[in-house]
Amino acid sequence: MNKISFETETCSRCGGSGHYSYCQMHGTTCFGCKGKGIQQSKRGAKARVAWDAKRVELCSVPVETVQVGDRVLLDHRFRTIERVETTGGSRFLKDGVWVDYISLHYTVKRPSGPEPTSYGLTPGMRVVAADTPEQWAALVAFADTLTGALIDGQPSTATAKADAASAKRAATKAAKQAAQVVSAPVAVPPAAVAPAAPSTTRVCGHCGSDYPVGQSCGCFDNGGQ
Question: Is residue 67 classed exposed, middle or buried when 0-12, 13-18 and 19+ CB atoms within 10 A define those classes?
Fold first, then answer.
């Protein structure tokens, strides 16, 4: 029989140590992971809710139909019913009429030894009965469609597809960023401009002609200056 589980991750509260702040009743046990160091991921928790709802849809039965020897899900575990009590137990008031709870009796194994226990349910409620092979096959097939579900410890088909798509998106993003770095314009500093050489000529203020610095123009009106 295939085993169904759900994706987990390191506890975000304690960082995986299983310990957090101290309290007198629970010591340093982390409440985020109950001391396990791991917790269901967001998509694992979402898949678990969907799978549990499907199990109730496929496997639940009216509490009135439960008989001695049946195995039903009570207090998060399947219990073998040893006695069904429909009268003489606890009662509740409904529409002005006292109605008996249906009490399912079973035995819980404690460190101190077996402990008789009972669970009271309102008539009309439904309980999850042990799965038939056909029901379990349907639940396994449903789990394979859930992102965050694991079948025999391996990612479901939906989980594998989601992970592949996520990896592809990450690779595409990295490639785009690399391309942007390569194509970015490189700033080129401006070429150095050499200072202008000092002028070696002067302009005659009288005739307008150029003549070498330190010499005279030679025109009559300039007076040789």
Answer: exposed
pTM to 2 decimal places: 0.67
Mind listing the pLDDT tens digit for each residue in 12-22?
A: 999 989 998 88
For 34, phi then psi, to 5°, come to 60, 35
- Strands (E) across 81-160 are located at 83-85, 91-94, 97-100, 102-110, 113-121, 126-128, 149-151, 154-155
121 pLDDT higher than 80: yes
Token pair, residue 15, equals 């960082």
- Residue 152: HSE in the Cβ half-sphere, 13 Å Cα cutoff: 5
153-189 tens-digit pLDDT: 999 999 999 999 999 999 999 998 888 877 767 677 7
Distance CA 152, CA 64 (A): 35
Other Cβ atoms closer than 10 A to 70 = 17
Under a CB-based contact definition with an 8 Å cutoff, are residues 8 and 47 in contact? no
Please state the domain extents for the chain: 67-128
**What are φ and ψ of residue 210, in 5° steps?**
-85, 150
